[in-house]
Structure prediction request, 221 residues.
Amino acid sequence: MKAMILAAGRGERMRPLTDNTPKPLLQAGGHTLIDYHLQALAKAGFESVVINHAHLGEKLEQALGDGSRYGLSIHYSAEGTPLETGGGIFHALPLLGDGPFLVVNGDVWTDYPLERLKTQSVQLAHLVLVGNPPQHPKGDFALQEGRVSETEGERLTFAGIGLYRPELFAGCKPGAFPLAPILRRAIAADQVSGEHYDGRWFDIGTPERLTQLDELLQQEG
Prediction:
């Protein structure tokens, strides 16, 4: 199974930190955000990782190289102009193969055990959901007996960690488009499973939240 890290966002809310540094290369606890993902993927037994990029993408490639120091093989999906989440994944499909693949948002930090997903069965998608953070109190989706739905009930937040089959993107065309409508279509067809992870997860969307994560990780040494 291959993995993809989404790293093409401009990081507008992180400015001025992202004016000269790609968001995934911002540091917390002495490591870049993307370092944590790459280390976790290697620990989980993944070997091939695709990283998309647009804003300052050459700096990502210079910093990470071919991935050998992580024990990984990194391939880059250059976008030039950001293609949003859905368009970015669709653009990278030729690098991801014919089977299910893992996608992780580059701007989250978590201790979720990624190895768990290597044996997870998946129809069109399998999503990891977490408790709603203060900045997103209404959540995204409901979870009922392992199935993701949009029905009434307790809603959880999509963690930015998911397994997808290439068939999820059937009918899509090249260009920029979001992932959410594609997921909602698959959810309506009852083709999306999910799980609730109650461990540590942070959405690093602002300089303040980056500072909070940095302080936490520095305290833990």
The mean pLDDT is 94.
